[in-house]
Structures are given as structure tokens and as C-alpha cells.
Amino acid sequence: MRGMPTFVAHARTLARARGRAVAFVLGVAICASCALRPSRLPELDRRFYANLPSPDAQHAFLKMRKPEERRAYLESLGLWQKWEALSPEEQKAVLEGRVEVGFDEFALYMAWGPPADVRTERTKHRKVDFLTFIRCTSGPRTGAYVKSNLDCDGTSSETIVAVENGRVTEIRYPY
To answer: Tell me, what DSSP letter sits at residue 25?
Structure first.
């Protein structure tokens, strides 16, 4: 840059710096758009995600880009083995979001997610868990099962499911 007027040299330096800054910002934006969100997971992985034991486990699951990594993680938690133990009929129903009396409790959780509330009743010889599931019936999340009716941005309904010895024994749908 010898012999060049000072303002021209400064202008070129600023232009190069601006170009690098724009490239950096674009790179960050592209990486951010690649970040996995639960909504971008494959259907089955999304159902597993909802049933992971903690927010830390969910965060770790989202960071795994390859299906093999996510499956190995699920195996390490014992969740993949529970999935494989379900009958083909239960697996199909889970993917359709259906639950029926006689299904395994894990199939219930995979189909509808964790319950909003659990109430346990004990007698001398029995223990029955009554699980409350809240489903949005209007608004942007229609059909979704949520932890609180406030998550619906519309109306919701509650379904009570009785579980005894790890099996669905009764389903009380709203009227």
C-alpha cells in the first residue's frame, strides 16, 4: 500500500473487515438454523424426547445429530429396550397417537407424553395410578398433549387413564 493515499488504504482495510464480519454473521446464522429443535426430530425420536427423564437429558439428546447416536443414548437409558418390548400393535398405535386398555404404561407415555398429573390410590391389595392427560382442542396446538391447559392458547380437555401393574386398565375420555 506504499504510495497509496492513506484514506484509500483505510477504505480497503474497512471493506475487508466488513466482509469478514458479514461472513461471520452469516456463518452463525446458518449454524443456528441447523440447530436441532424437538419439532425437527423424526416422529419416533420426538416421542422419546418428550419422555426423557430431565431437561439435561433432553438437551443432550438434541445435540446428537446421527440417529445411531440417539439410539445408543436411548439404549443407555433403557428406553429403547422398553420400545422393543412393546408389541407391533402397540408400536403402531403409539405412532398414531392412540392408546387402548391393555397397553403397556410405556406405550401410553410414548403416545401421549408424560401426564399432567398423577394420583395414586391404594387399598389393602391394590395400587392404581390415575394419570391425567390434557389435550388441546382448539388453538395453534390442537391435538397436542400438554402439561398445563394454559399451554393450549385455546380450549382443552382432560382424559384420565388408570394404570395398574404397568398396564392401562381404564380410559375415561371427556364427555
So the answer is: H
Considering the chain, what is the average pLDDT of its residues? Answer: 87
Which residue has better confidence, 174 or 75?
Answer: 75
- Alpha-carbon gap, residue 113 to 158, rounded angstroms: 14
Dist CA 51 CA 45 (whole Å): 10
- For the chain, which residues make up each domain, given as ranges? 1-35, 37-85, 100-175
Q: How far is Cα 163 from Cα 112, in angstroms, rounded to an integer?
A: 14
pLDDT, one tens digit per residue, over 125-143 is: 999 999 999 999 999 999 9
DSSP state of 153: S
**Domain 100-175 grouped into CATH 3.30.1450:** yes
Determine the Cα–Cα distance for residues 113 and 52; give it in Å rounded to an integer: 10
Query: Model-level pTM?
Result: 0.77
Judging by DSSP bridges, how do beta strands 117-122 and 145-146 pair with one another?
A: unpaired
pLDDT at 147 over 60: yes
Question: CA torsion 175→169→136→93, rounded to 10°?
Answer: -120
- Tracing cell 424437538 back to the chain, one arrives at 38
Backbone φ and ψ for 92, nearest 5 degrees, come out as -65, -45
